[in-house]
Amino acid sequence: MKKLILLFPFLILFSSTGFAQGELDDQQKIFFRNEQSVGLLLNSTGWGLGLRYGKRINYLNKRLYEVDFTHIKHPKEIKTTNPYFPNNRGFVFGKLNLFMNLRAGMGHQREVFKKIDSGGIAVRYFGSAGPSLGFYKPIYYEVLYSLYDNIYEIKIEKFSEGIHQSSDIYGRASFFKGFDEIKFVPGAYVKLGLNFEYSKIDRVIHALEVGVTFDAFTKKIPIMASEDNKQFFFALFVSYRFGRIVDPKRQTIIPDMEELRDTF
């Protein structure tokens, strides 16, 4: 959370440079400016990945269609290792489930400051909302059981608050253990934010986004072995978004090599 808050002054300063004069932009413009983009997301409750399609409504407005896949953590998660076996897999003591969230929504984006030269920044605000599907799978641990002297047996078990101590945990079991026990919970989300688009190439998108998200589910999600598990999650986020502008007259599913090179 602190890292995200520290980024805000930088982003404000970064956006203000968009009003300075730079190299005049003489590129051929794509008038309709539909867009396809991918977002890499870091937020105060985890991380995520998002796909977005923006369809032009008029000169300043777009309709957004998006899909996000996010990982949501409990605020009390602290990764540790057994001090007697420090080279083994780290684990979060007391964690019951790994929680992921799949969002699918629609929204609106409006441009408030247009990029007038190749070194400028376009500033937009956006909002989206829609249904989501949360799913969680149990976490398994490698648990030590003493046989005799310094000989131990390792068993793969779920965490049990009344039985396991931190010193009993040898490490985290395989990530793939428990996929056959996944449970689903429906929900909904709302997202609000600002988009700072700074690409020097007209048909390419490079942007930073900052904003807030609110996720709500039909029940509390048992992430940790504690009584303060939540069903409502509020988060600040920072996202890097890259993609391309699509001209509907020559829209293709796979971009050519020149477009791919310009995007990156």
Topology:
Layout lengths: L1 H15 L17 E10 L2 E11 L4 E12 L6 E2 L10 E2 L4 E17 L8 E17 L1 E9 L2 E8 L10 E4 L10 E15 L6 E14 L14 E15 L10 H7 L1
Antiparallel strand pairs: 1-2, 1-13, 2-3, 3-6, 4-5, 6-7, 7-11, 8-9, 8-10, 11-12, 12-13
Fold and architecture overview:
The protein has 264 residues and is mostly beta strands. The protein has one domain: Porin (Beta Barrel). It contains 2 helices and 13 strands. The protein has helices at 2-16, 257-263, and strands spanning 34-43, 46-56, 61-72, 79-80, 91-92, 97-113, 122-138, 140-148, 151-158, 169-172, 183-197, 204-217, 232-246. The strands form 3 sheets. An 8-stranded antiparallel β-barrel has the order 1-2-3-6-7-11-12-13. A 3-stranded antiparallel beta sheet has the order 9-8-10, with no helix packed on it. Strand 8 (140-148) and strand 9 form a beta hairpin. The longest helix has 15 residues, at 2-16. It starts with a helix and ends with a helix. The relative contact order is 0.21.
Write the CATH architecture name. Beta Barrel
Helical residue percent? Answer: under 10%
* Spatial order of the strands forming the largest sheet: 1-2-3-6-7-11-12-13
Query: In CATH, what is the class?
Result: Mainly Beta
The fold-level CATH name is Porin
The helix/strand order is HEEEEEEEEEEEEEH
- Quaternary structure type: single chain
Distance between the termini: 29 Å
Biggest sheet architecture = 8 strands, antiparallel, barrel
Number of domains: 1
Average pLDDT score: 83
- Based on secondary structure, the structural category is mainly beta
**Strand content of the residues, in percent?**
over 45%
The backbone outline, from C-alpha atoms, is elongated
- The counted number of beta strands is 13
What is the CA-based Rg, rounded?
A: 23 Å
**Spans of at least 5 consecutive residues with low confidence:** 8-22, 24-28, 251-257
